[in-house]
Write a structure and sequence with these properties.
- The radius of gyration is 20 Å and the shape is globular.
- The protein is built from four helices and seven strands; from the N terminus they run βαββββββααα.
- The protein folds into two domains: 141 residues, START domain (Alpha-D-Glucose-1,6-Bisphosphate, Chain A, domain 4); 34 residues, no CATH class.
- Strand 3 and strand 4 form a beta hairpin.
- It has 194 residues and is of the alpha+beta class.
- InterPro entries: Polyketide_cyclase/dehydratase, START-like_dom_sf.
- It comes from Ramalina farinacea.
Length: 194
């Protein structure tokens, strides 16, 4: 009898303690302001209503220094709870998965050695098809699948092999969040010294 694990959506959480007060960090956590701290972004601008978005919807176009353009929609924002949630609604080049919803959340550290600092988390919840973005032949090459002359698979591919290759998108997102959190810390600390 074969049993299968239930499908799950991959998610990540990266975090940092930034040695700056909550106010210095929180004022930067607005989609149009991300290029002021994130070194991978070259610009952010609101999409005009003429682009097919409603004036009531906050959609920002992020242009990355590598040429990637993403339209991100603010899904939720709380000045009371200090978080923002956004989703990528379009990307050029296209994403290799259906979607991702991200949240940046800040907390003021109120006691201990880090008192006066800010604890920040940046999460990402990906659609279940988030993978390395490869077609079947590329997957098989990456996994070392061998076929005989009739096309039958010679070696079975294990679930661990599949997971190892599938982590491309997730690891890339993890790296980008770590980079952005380090950039946020530099900017917030500099702003706090002003």
């Amino acid at each position: 009898m074969t049993t299968h694990a239930p499908p799950t959506a991959p998610s990540i959480t990266e975090s940092a303690v930034i040695p700056a007060p909550l106010a210095s960090v929180w004022h930067l956590i607005k989609l149009p302001l991300f290029p002021t701290f994130w070194s991978s972004l070259s610009s952010a601008s609101p999409l005009p209503a003429s682009s097919g978005t409603s004036p009531e919807v906050d959609v920002i176009r992020w242009v990355f220094k590598d040429g990637t353009t993403q339209d991100v929609k603010q899904e939720e924002h709380s000045a009371l709870e200090h978080y923002i949630t956004y989703s990528v609604i379009s990307s050029e080049p296209a994403l290799s998965y259906s979607g991702v919803v991200s949240t940046v959340r800040c907390w003021g550290v109120t006691s201990g050695e880090q008192q006066g600092s800010t604890f920040v988390t940046w999460t990402g919840s990906f659609s279940g098809d988030a993978d390395a973005g490869n077609d079947v032949e590329e997957w098989e090459m990456m996994l070392g699948v061998q076929r005989d002359i009739t096309g039958a698979v010679v070696d079975e591919v294990t679930k661990a092999d599949y997971v190892r290759v599938r982590t491309g998108v997730i690891e890339d997102a993890r790296f980008k969040r770590k980079e952005a959190l380090a950039d946020l810390a530099k900017k917030a600390v500099a702003d706090a010294k002003k």
